[in-house]
Amino acid sequence: MDWTLEEVKLIIPYYFEMLNEELSHKQYSKTYYRNNLLINLKNRNKGSVEFKHQNISAILMEMGLPFIKGYKPRYNYQQLLSEELAKYISLNKFELEKKFEKFSTVNELNQKNYSKIEFDSILIDEPINSSIPEKEVQFKPIKTNYLKKEQNNRTLGEFGESLVIEYEKWRLIKENKESLVDKIEWISKDLGDGTGFDILSKNTNGTDRFIEVKTTKLSKETPIYVTKNEVQFAKKYSSQFYLYRIFNFDTKPGLFIKTGIYSNFCTLKAETFKGYFG
Predict the structure, then answer these.
(1) Are 156 and 103 within one domain?
(2) Cα–Cα distance, 236 to 245 (Å, whole number)
(3) Is the pTM of this model over 0.85?
(4) Mean pLDDT of all residues in the chain?
(5) Domain containing residue 26
(6) Domains in the chain, number
């Protein structure tokens, strides 16, 4: 049964209270918020509320805005929720943009002590493919894509790439290929971002491993943003290309790895087009 307008208007502020706590790096209880919400939602249960929170995460993701890590996006949301969420964001746009800007600039992030990261447990199962809608939300009250802005933040990017370099050293040493460690090159730092990949590492047989690193402080379902050059490079060197996706970077970093061309392991959607005249 679809949620009523009154129910939708009730749940949205609760979600944003939790999101604010999370973006501020404060401890909070999802159970506490959910139980308080259920007091006023007489015809809903725990599962229904959790599912609606996941719907809100999906809409925020489509808008290019941060979402709560613990609520995996679910895209089969009702149109009413999308419309009311857009209205709420519009009414609170000034305060929300300040929080999202801080999230994307990564000013508070410090270099991680990689000696304390257990690399044998950092590798996580990849996200399970879910149904991605062909039609996304039409109205985006905040025009800035803060998910893309976070990913393109050079500080965060370098931290993620540095972590991957340490992981690659660990991987090669673990495979008794310590002689290959000195072959690892930080390409994006030495040559810039135009090569189509970030790190040149080695496979255990000595062949090249071209690694593109995408890093986020959000969950593993967060979309990545790739350039035409990156897509073309992966296609040209598909047998040697690896995407290393780092997530939850500011809490407990996780990593999953994909190989081959982008379209084989994620759904690519065009964001912009170039228009020529004449």
Answers:
(1) no
(2) 20
(3) yes
(4) 92
(5) 5-114
(6) 2
Give the integer Cα–Cα distance in Å for 30 and 51. 13
One domain for residues 107 and 155: no
pLDDT digits (tens, 9 = 90+) for 56-82: 999 999 999 999 999 999 988 999 999
Q: Which residue type does 221 have? A: E
Residues 127 and 105: their CA atoms lie apart, in Å, by 26
Question: What six digits make up the tokens of 67?
Answer: 């979402």
Question: Which amino acid, one-letter code, is at 186?
Answer: W
The reply to whether 174 and 104 lie within a common domain is no
User: Phi and psi dihedrals of 247, rounded to 5?
Assistant: -135, 170
Decide if 140 is inside a domain.
no
pLDDT at 12: 98
The pLDDT tens digits for 182-229 are 999 999 999 988 899 999 999 999 999 999 999 999 999 999 999 999
- Residue 120, class by beta-carbon neighbours within 10 Å (0-12 exposed, 13-18 middle, 19+ buried)? exposed
Domain check: are 158 and 252 in the same one?
A: yes
Question: In this structure, is residue 74 part of a structural domain?
Answer: yes
User: CA-CA distance, 95 to 114, in Å (whole number)?
Assistant: 35
Q: Is residue 175 part of a domain?
A: yes
